[in-house]
Design the sequence.
């Protein structure tokens, strides 16, 4: 596996997550040579929900991540 291409990794983590501590999210990102985006004022279950509006910082992070991979998502979240 030494010659395998790296797998892109983006960890999106709530700053106030009490189920999976932020340190765990950072460790996952570091172990996978990935990136982490910390969402301020978010916990574990309020990052993604059909009952809450999409957080703009998540949309921005995902768009930038996929753009870096060569995928344009500019119209996906309109």
Sequence:
């Amino acid at each position: 596996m030494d010659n395998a291409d790296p797998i892109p990794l983006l960890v999106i983590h709530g700053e106030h997550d009490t189920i999976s501590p932020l340190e765990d999210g950072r460790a996952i990102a570091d172990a996978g040579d990935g990136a982490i985006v910390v969402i301020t004022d978010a916990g574990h279950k309020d990052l993604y929900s059909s009952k809450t509006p999409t957080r703009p910082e998540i949309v921005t992070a995902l768009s930038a991540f996929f753009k870096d991979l060569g995928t344009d998502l500019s119209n996906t979240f309109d």
